[in-house]
What we know:
The protein has one domain. The protein is 39% helix and 17% strand.
Amino acid sequence: MNTSNKILIKEKISENLSLRDFARTFFIQLNKSTYDSLIIDFKGVNFMSRSFAQEYLDRKTESEKQIKEINMLSDIEKMFEVVKAPRERKPFFDFNKLKITTL
């Protein structure tokens, strides 16, 4: 049983949070906790990939736990903001401007 509801994510995963699977596994463990409220301490985390951030936020939303993050570098905070922001998808081609040519 945990004696604290504060979790140093660097100790559980790494100082470089890169893979979706790491976030998925981390949340499987978090959801087994007997605490209703958890504090995730990002102290010592130097990098977080977009895919990790996306999976982390998705799992956090699905979790019944109250989760708060502390001690995040500005780059980590920005990555979460980027993932949270709705993306405007631009078409790869503008089909209205394409001209069909017969060969």
